[in-house]
Amino acid sequence: MIQRIQTVYLLLVSILLGITLFAPLAWFGIGNEIYMLRAFSVESPAGETVQSPAFWTGILLACSAVLPILTIFLYKRRMLQIRLCAVEFVLLVGCVAMLACSYFGHGEVDAQGMKPAIFLPVVAMLLVFLAGRAIFRDEILVKSLDRIR
Question: Among 21, 32, 120, 149, which residue has the least CB neighbours within 10 Å?
Answer without folding.
Answer: 149
